[in-house]
Amino acid sequence: MLEDLVGANIARAVGDENNLTEIRMRVSRPLTYCTVKGERKVAKAYGVAYIVTKSDIEGVLARATNMSVYSASDEMKKGYIPFGSYRIGIGGEGVSDGGKLLAMKNVSYLVVRIPHQIKHVADEIVAEVMSESVLSTLVVSPTGGGKTTMLRELARIASKDKNVVIIDERYELCAVSHGAASLDVGDCEIVSGVPKVVAYENCIRAMNPDVIVTDELFSSNEVAAICDVVRCGVRVFASVHGESVEKVLSDSRFSPLAEAFDFAVSLSKSPVGKIVEKVRL
Q: Which of 58, 63, 102, 164 is spaced 20 to 30 Å from 267 by Cα?
């Protein structure tokens, strides 16, 4: 429940959780939120803009870490904290040494991401992706375009008759809480909070997957690792930030994916999640 994370005052100011995709908190600035329709609004309390205080930020961090912010220091260094089905992005001052980030302090900015389960979002492509055999599928869209929602639904459907392992490094695909998924991903095995390049090899050796589903590919190392997974005979569903399949695959970091994947789809940000392109690779 959103109130358990942000507190009663903020929960009242932003309204129905089912209508939200994110809440943005900036100390001494108005509280804002985005709706499922893509609208950005200023939250109000008693008819005026709700101004975020330092205690609001501290309260969210305390609740998200069970009153022990220190215990979440590793996640905070990665820029986020998971809490149930939510992920909280963090902004503030970094403490570094020799180019290595050691800790975050004076946190003054939070972005609470609120996932939504949208079943049947993959209906337009599922027959093609899972007809005779599962096609390794790349999902492309800008930030907030529905990549994670599409991957979650593909994983759920594929798990009906395939061994599916989800590698959920940033807790977005499954929203794992206390080891169990908060969202419906079907009969999948889940490895969360583990770097992808580490998890891939372990999963192939120990979990016998037919399909691996993974969140956003970003670095060249992750691309190389996922290409190795495909060479092992495992199918992959994965996502990449981008405007179109062509633009993503023309980037030297991602061009090897053209050989590893069988199918790609791009989604629009407005309206969110609309399939605008389907490409056989």
A: 164
Taking alpha carbons only, the member of 114, 104, 91, 94 closest to residue 29 is 91
Q: What's the alpha-carbon Rg for the chain, to the nearest Å? A: 19
Q: Which helix (H) or strand (E) holds 90?
A: strand 86-97
Answer yes or no: are the C-beta atoms of 104 and 90 closer than 8 Å: yes
The token duo for 49 is: 């803009």
Is the pLDDT score of 195 beyond 90?
A: no
CA torsion, ordered 175, 178, 182, 187, to nearest 10 deg: 100
Query: What is the SS3 assignment for 211-256?
Result: EEEECCCCCHHHHHHHHHHHHCCCEEEEEEECCCHHHHHHCCCCCC
What is the distance between the alpha carbons of residues 2 and 8, in angstroms, rounded to a whole number? 9
User: What does the alpha-carbon distance between residue 80 and residue 169 come to, in Å, rounded to a whole number?
Assistant: 11
List pLDDT tens digits, range 20-43: 989 999 999 999 999 988 889 999
List alpha helices for the chain, DSSP H.
2-6, 8-14, 54-64, 73-77, 123-129, 147-158, 196-207, 220-231, 245-250, 257-260
Beta-bridge mates of residue 275 = 267
pLDDT of residue 69: 79
- Tokens linked to 143: 């930030």
Q: What is the pTM of this model?
A: 0.84
Q: What is the mean pLDDT of residues 113-124?
A: 88
